[in-house]
Structures are given as structure tokens and as C-alpha cells.
Amino acid sequence: MGGPMTGKTDTISDKAVVLHQHRTVVGLSPWLAEAAVDAVRNGLMLQLVTPADGFITYPVEVMLAQAQGQWVVRAGDQYRDGLTGLPLQWDGHRFSSANGSQGAGALPTSEPWTGGLEIQIVTLHPATEALDLGASTEAAVRALTGNDPVGWGIAEPVTETWSRRDLTSFCRTRAPAPTSVAIVGGDNRSALLGVLTVERVDVGVREQLRLAGPPLSAVDEATIEALAEKLASTVRSMIVAVHPGRSGGVRSSTPSLPALPWGILVGRQEQALDSEPEVIPGRALGRGARRSWWYRVDSGPGAPYENLAAVLRRYGLRTDRQGTG
User: Fold this and answer.
1) DSSP state of 133
2) What is the C-alpha to C-alpha distance for residues 105 and 108, in angstroms, rounded to an integer?
3) Which residue from 324, 253, 325, 323 is spatially nearest to 73, judged by alpha carbons?
4) What distance in Å separates the CA atoms of residue 104 and residue 113, rounded to the nearest whole number?
5) What is d(CA 322, CA 204) in angstroms, rounded to the nearest whole number?
6) What per-residue confidence (pLDDT) applies to 277?
7) 3-state secondary structure of 176
């Protein structure tokens, strides 16, 4: 059993690894990334504790989701979940729901479509010597910032300048084990952070990009439409959303609503199910076997979540929402 929590020291118990960070912005440092791997390997819950005025980067947020960890916010001698606001208490083993707490109180509110853009892109590649990773990352980062990615690395701050060739070589040397790297792009006005995960699957190599970037208001909607057109012939899917709790790839501890879906691109690898009628108007991109469909889900017969769910059902798809709570 871990010792009593003082709000200052790290603790390892039979249930959890509790790490205290005192920086204003907590990034995915090599030490934190290693601690997450060790916690998962040993069947322990990773709990990251920060001050109430602290922030975490998007790679940390994704890491916590993948490791089934938890962000704990310390405000004086009180603790709460950094994503939901649910009150927490130290139970001698780990932080858990406070006695008698039924929830986080009133639901947070925000103006629709305010907050940082969130983009998830999935690409399937043949597992051949011609494998070339990073094209969708380049396209997405250029669309949001006007420039190529700045760099990549296994932790933050990233250590490698952007190179698709180097990235591909690095992932190849680690195969068949999956590889996740942090992506950095933009500047102060258009900053973004992301996570690129590459793994072998039955049908080849799956490349999944998650980006958290500038506000929707800072990016021309036509630019996002053009990105869908550019990627239509190569990607399996792209989901664009707006998260009210993030900006520039950094998230505050103020509880917020989940990301609000804005659009989805269904790639040419997917065929619509004949039994499902058209749900919302879509736009065909390409022709014949290379045709894809782009759907704007921010308007339609239902709320954005309902529209997205209807499109996913139509194509027999599911979405990975890790790091987007």
C-alpha cells in the first residue's frame, strides 16, 4: 500500500503509479512515456497529478487514454478528474471517486464550434518494401499550418526534424511491434501537436494519425474541404471535429464537452451497406473503384454526433476516440 498523499511526492502502490508534475504544461517526456509502459506492463493504473492551473499536451492525453490512465487535478487539498471534473480522493491505493460523489455537477457548456480542431486519419498500406509513411501527416499539417511538420520523436520535446524517409525507416526497424511518435507543427498562431501510430495488421500496415491543432475559426473551411479531396484516393477514413477544451494541441483542466464532429471522409476501401438508406447528403470524390465520400455532419437531420453515428453505421465502421474525451 502506498503512503499517504502529500501532494508533492510520487507514489507506487499495489494498484497504481501516481506521478506528480508541477510544470505549467506537462508534455510526454521520455521519463513519463517509460513510466506509462512500466505501469501497463505491471498491471497498474497510471495517475498523473498536476496543479489546477496546469495543462497537458495532446500526446500526454492520448497516452493516458491508451494506458487507461487518469489525469488528476490538485486544487489545494481537493482532487478531481482533469477531464470530467469528478471529485476524487486517495483511498490508500490510488485516487478513486470521492465518497458520495454522483458526478461532476452541472454539465460544462461552450459555444458550438469553439476550440481546437481535431483530425483523425487512418491509412492502410500494403506491407512492401515500397512502404512510405507520413504522406497524410504532411497533407494535414500543411492544411492547418501552411507548412510541413516541424519534427517528430518518441517523446516531447521531439528530437527529429521532419523526414518521411527517416520516419518510415524508424518504424520499419521496430516492426512488427507497433510504433507511436509525437508530431509537432505550426508556430504560436497555428500550433498543433499529434500522435502517429503505425502497426502491422492482417491486411498490411495501419497508419493512424491524431492531430490537435488551431481553432476552427483560424482555418478556412475550404481548406479542410480541399484536404478531404487530396486524401480521398489514399486514406481509409478521416474524421474532423472541434474540441472546446483544447487549443494548439494543449488541454486545460477545466471540464469540457467532448469533441463535436464536423465532417467525415469515408475512403475507397469501404463499401456502403445496401440495407442502410442514405442518411445525410454526401459528396462523391473521385470515380469508380477509387471513389470516396465526404460528409459534413455539422448540419443535417440530427445533431452532429447522431449524423456521424449514422454514417459510421452505413459503412460498417467504428471510430477510435482515444484522447478525445
Assistant:
1) -
2) 9
3) 253
4) 23
5) 22
6) 52
7) coil
